[in-house]
Amino acid sequence: MNNAVFSQKERNIIILIIVLFLGAILMYALKGIFSAILGTMVMYTLFRNLNRFLIENWHWPKPLSSVFIIIISLFIIVLPFVGIGSMLLNKARELQDNPDWINSIIDAINTFVGDKLGKPDFLKEQLEASAAYAGELLTAVLGMAANIFLEISVMYFILYFLFVNYKGFENGIVFYMPFDAENAVEFGNELKNITYSNIVGQTFIAIVQGGCLALGFWIFDVSDPLFWGVICAILSFIPLIGPPLIFVPAAMILFAEGQSWQAVGLLLWGFGLVINIDNVLRLIIAKKIGDIHPIITVVGVIIGLPLFGIMGLVYGPLLLAYFLIAVKIYKANKRLALKRDQLEQH
Hints:
By secondary structure, the chain is mainly α. The chain folds into two domains: 34-176, no CATH class; 179-339. It is 85% helix and 0% strand. Helix 2 crosses helix 3, helix 2 (34-56) packs across helix 5 and helix 7 (181-219) packs antiparallel against helix 12 (312-345). It is a multi-pass membrane protein. Belongs to the autoinducer-2 exporter (AI-2E) (TC 2.A.86) family.
């Protein structure tokens, strides 16, 4: 005789509720390293084939393969960010030690705006208004740097064990995914293509655009073309909008300094070449790797920056693209379920 208070079905429901409740608590506790978890997923997707090749074709020990990939990724991905940060810091120190250049730009802009708009102290007013914000921003950037170091450490710690136990990890994902085998394969392929398109493709676009803008700055005699090319490459992760944030103010400064033909030439170079390179390369990458629509990229950046800081330029569009893939698979599953129901009725 069974005297149990709950039936087997009721016990399963209660256990599921407990699992969801504890999972929600864990998700809330892990919110501070959510970008590290997302970064782990991105890195695993990028280097998954290399890990399998080293282990299955070259018969490397799994820990050795994992450490080798981590070292390679440090050189390819992390160290360039360290170099960019160092370049920005050196530029800030240079401007602090030698303020003549920035002062001459301020005077030229004040003169230009004073003649055109009747506000000779326009830039001074704007700088005074933003002084407090700049102090807060510096504090935030320092805190962000410490947080990025922590996230990178957590990311590589998790990534090591995922590469070592890659078969168990992938089998577990397939087992717990609410998709059938065909949709699981499609989801994996789209996930890989979108990741490669956004990381590899967009990085290539950014480098080309930054290089072209640096060349334009050199041709039209704008100071520090390499530095501004690097800044343009970073902002190029925002399609169409990013590069003009660099070359339009530079052209305004050239106008203010009386270099009218250089300013016009820089604007033509920027709008005619730099921006259109984005459009051409994006079409090529969409055909070769995968397509992320510019609207998804822009909206993803808007979503990603408040969540992940500077890494939101990459993670934001990816997160939105992953969400849209999940919706697409859900719609496919729903259509299959409707077809099955119709067949059963007949």
